[in-house]
Protein: Molybdopterin-dependent oxidoreductase
Organism: Shewanella eurypsychrophilus
Amino acid sequence: MKRRDFLKVSAASAAVASVTGCSSDSAEPAKPIEQPITDPIAGESHAWAQCQSNCWAWCPLKVITKDGKIIRIEPHTEGDDNFDSGFIHNKACAKGLMLKELVYSPERLTKPLKRVGKRGEGKFEEISWEQAASEIAQSLRSTIDSCGNRAVMLGNGSGAAHSSYPIMGPHVRLMNLLGGFQKTYGYYSACMKEQAIPYTFGPSTKNLAYGQGTGSSSVTEMKHSDYILSFGYNPLEMFMTGGGEGHHFAQTLESNDIKFVYVDPRYTDTCLGREDDWLGIRPGTDGALIEAIFHQVLVAYGYDSETNTFADKRGNWANTAILGLTNKSLEEYKTKLELELESGEITDGNAQYAEHIEPEDNLYDYIMGTFTGKAKTPEWAAPICGVPAGKIREVAQDLLSADAPFICSGQGIQRNACGEQVMRAIYTLPVLLNAIGRRGTNNGDLPMVAAAGPGAAMIPMAFWSDPTVPGFIGGTAPASVVKAKIPTYKTFEAMVRGHEMTERSDGVLGMTVDSDTPENDEKYGTNIKFLMTIAGNTVNQHGDIEEVKKVLSLEPTPGQKEEPGLDMHVVIDTQMTPTAQWADIVLPDTTWTERYDYIASDNTTVYTVPSIEPIGDSKPVFEFLVMLAEEMGVTGFATKGLTQEAMTKTFIDEAVNGPMGDPTLPHWSDHEEHGYVFTHKFEEPSIGMEKEFNQRGGGVKLSTPSTLVEAYSPRLAWIASDKGWDKDEEYVDGGVTALPKYLRTWEDFEDQDAIDEGFEFQLVNYHTKGRAHSTFHNCPTLRKVYEDAIWINPYDANNLGIISGEMVDVASPRGTIEVPAKVTTRIAMGVVAIGQGAWHKKLGNKDVGGCANTLTRQKPTPLAKGNPMNSVRVRITKA
Ligand SMILES: Nc1nc2c(c(=O)[nH]1)N[C@H]1C(S)=C(S)[C@@H](COP(=O)(O)OP(=O)(O)OC[C@H]3O[C@@H](n4cnc5c(=O)[nH]c(N)nc54)[C@H](O)[C@@H]3O)O[C@H]1N2
Ligand SMILES: Nc1nc2c(c(=O)[nH]1)N[C@H]1C(S)=C(S)[C@@H](COP(=O)(O)OP(=O)(O)OC[C@H]3O[C@@H](n4cnc5c(=O)[nH]c(N)nc54)[C@H](O)[C@@H]3O)O[C@H]1N2
Ligand code: SF4
Ligand SMILES: [Mo]
């Protein structure tokens, strides 16, 4: 079994028992690289660790020590950089190489701490691990007893992504053994597209975010394309591992004759002369650009309303693949559903929404303006998106004449108040063009991350968190009784009004919805009262820091489900972060160099052994959870007295020999004998959605209720109706529509109220090369190399009389940050941009740390209830 196939299996735990071993027929053996050594002359030793930061690459790190201290970190240098060989090696970027600065940082946590002042005041006293375990156990027990397991939340944290321990690890198992907990859904990375995909391509297209299970093609497929259209897909900044995806992307463009058009308000390092065109679009307006492209394509196809056909290249194919392309097609579909309802023989899950289908609201007529008089021409779109009409025509023409257009997107584009809409439009585009499911094309999504899939890394995670996994050392744990899931972006709101949340009002999944009477919908029933965050800097990384702080400073009201205020906030990290400052108890975890661990990505397996002793009194989170389990009187927790080393070996043994294992992976004994890092042959994945779009007879078969691409979604028509979800008055059309439409939202390009209040600029807060989110922020070298400054166009800067390097105040209705300006033509006019993840540091009424979330808003998107961090308007003034 390929590791990617395993992912699919592990997602569906019901299928687990039927999986028997793996075939190793075609697999080339993994290659070991470099043994740990001791250099007797220099007196240096080295061992291997892994960069576990959430950048999806998990580069092996060679940790060089002398006299028990890390003296430097080196990348691994064996293997090759050629994707065609299949043995890609992940060479650490500047961040991983600066790990030493994190291990020995002044902010490094070395002792368990207990708050002494008010929450958030930042005053702590040192306590023992025993006291910490006992106080946490007491508080946890009392929250569960008085408010139930739904009141207990494990906070979001991605700081040690795919480690066997801090993420999705022993804490999940422990909480399940205690009767369950709230683990939110809809992660910050991709939750708008996670909603957009099932509505468009069907639920089976969605299993994991991050380009892994979104049906997209691999980045390796690009070499078969002749035209790449990227909506903010930015591999040279997002996938920095040398030899990995960014490198491969650059190689592909250099060695093939491909036209590359990059759409982003920022001119990123993905361009740097590789692009044929950079379209410096306004944030949140890609939907308008795409509608104008639809217009040009539909005009070129020509529509014969008599026969209800288009003269597209494949002979009316798009009209048979897309639900809702024309009035007639949608009318026929509605009639079919009505007949099903009448006869009672319902085969189509959309039948229940038949009455909400409005055939006149089809894509063709909407774009042509047949009933509205507003055609979505390039001339209509240009003043909205800022891309000249001539350019839009050129893109449409190129898309029409290319043999294999590869349309793709990043995720910043969907971190927007209309993120679901724009993603549904992007998914529809390649279908309309018949540029999907075949060589050199893509489904519009983030290309599969070729060098950095989590692969077998999921195995230990599954063991910890999936109680159905057989054979696990701890036996089986009961599944969580808490089925309801709150959207991640409502985490803090749920501390104040979780008790009244329903699926319809707040997107809480897994609860009963009474489809006609919202008053009868099941309520979540309690506020969140206990929060434990491991490897997350949530205060810094959630929207609107001041609002987050306000919620965290509410006094606890123990036992009162409907009253706000956390009983306890526990943070387990390696650094004294802005989030740890807001904890009641802070616990010092070990870093990636101080514990055993195991991560296997698609192309590398690293068995990490500690290269130094834990600093101070820090302890692997695993060992603390064993203590907590004992305090709580939980039996059957996973350890059976094993050390972390033995535990890790058990994981590897299961990953290789277990019922779901992959025998082509090296065993721990192979690691000990041959090397702590192995590279695996990366097999080029198949073309995205090839199966779904190449049915016998040229048909399309998706897992949507209609089996077609639901550009028009009957369920969304219901949600948008009066009987559906609550309307959001700050959106035109309530923010949800059956067709993907460019919608006006709050703080968008056209928000005249905000502009009148002086919030003249749109703000993009991107993922900078200098951090993985907030991780690595406190590395002084990185802060010098990657300047945290607000990008502003020379035209705008000139109007404000601002020069590069000058300190400016960037203010939104939520707060103000003070940062230097960087005057550059690399940003569209009217837009400013800053790297997200800088640590919030309040001085007076300003955040002098420059955290983007001092500016962002906590209002969720209408459908996914996700984080629209790029829907922010700001005012710029001299500091
Ligand atoms: N404004 C804005 N905000 C955003 C985004 C945005 O684009 N704009 N992006 C969002 C996205 S996509 C994401 S994924 C989130 C990420 O948000 P988080 O998941 O909070 O990620 P980090 O900020 O990197 O914080 C990770 C923490 O884990 C700690 N850590 C690292 N290793 C270990 C370990 O081994 N053990 C323990 N116990 N702790 C460890 C680090 O010190 C750090 O404090 O941010 C989101 N926030
Ligand atoms: N160096 C580095 N790499 C990372 C991370 C990191 O923090 N640092 N984080 C990792 C993680 S967890 C994630 S989720 C991914 C994040 O990956 P993404 O979410 O794709 O990254 P962003 O930088 O937020 O956005 C990508 C680009 O989209 C642009 N953009 C923003 N709004 C719009 C818009 O409305 N339209 C268009 N066309 N473009 C827009 C931004 O300017 C940016 O250049 O990256 C991963 N890789
Ligand atoms: S931050 Fe990403 S690319 Fe850089 S070393 Fe870590 S895993 Fe590799
Ligand atoms: Mo992310």
Summary: Residues 113-187+461-589+616-636 form a domain with the Rossmann fold fold (CATH 3.40.50.740). Residues 51, 53, 55, 57-59, 90, 92-93, 95-96, 240-241, 772 surround iron/sulfur cluster (ligand 3) (CB under 6 Å). The two ends are 59 Å apart (CA to CA).
